Amino acid sequence: MDEIVKKLAGLGLPGIILVILTVTSGGSSVAVAATLTALGGPFGIVGGIALLGVITAVGDAVAGYGLEGIVKAIYKERSKTESVPFLLKEIKDLPITEELKLKLKNELSSEVSTDEQKVEIPKTVEIVEE
Questions:
Q1: Per-residue pLDDT for 75 more than 50?
Q2: C-alpha–C-alpha distance, residues 94 and 109, integer Å
């Protein structure tokens, strides 16, 4: 799963959309292809076809780990290189349930607080006069 998560995280938001699209389309290649053509952006159909190759891996990963686990892992990986406020705004606009949005936001918030807790606080030394 880690390898797939890193590849999808590298795609950024299109990776998240690809995961959601694959799950919601029920594996229908026609619906996925039409949407991917639009997602191909400046590369048009070629860009869309290139992303089609990822669909099988995404489908297998989602079947094995579930949508929530995959999406959480992708955002956790992306939080290493992208700002958490940017990712939180992105999550707000995703076409997913409010429950999953809340879980993703909590996951990212816990990452930030964990990083803050890693700061070592020096121990105080009590000086005893003799």
A1: yes
A2: 17
Alpha-carbon 60 to chain mean position: 16
Cα torsion at 32, 33, 37, 39 (round to 10°)?
Answer: 20
Q: What is the pLDDT of residues 11-68, one digit of tens each?
A: 676 677 777 777 777 767 777 777 777 777 777 767 776 766 676 677 777 778 888 8
Could you give the angle at the alpha carbon of 12 between the alpha carbons of 84 and 100, nearest 5°? 60
Cβ atoms 33, 52 nearer than 8 A: yes
Residue 112 pLDDT > 70: no
Quote the crossing angle between the two packed helices 84-92 and 67-78, to the nearest 10°. 150
Give 127's contacts (C-beta < 8 A, 6+ positions apart).
none
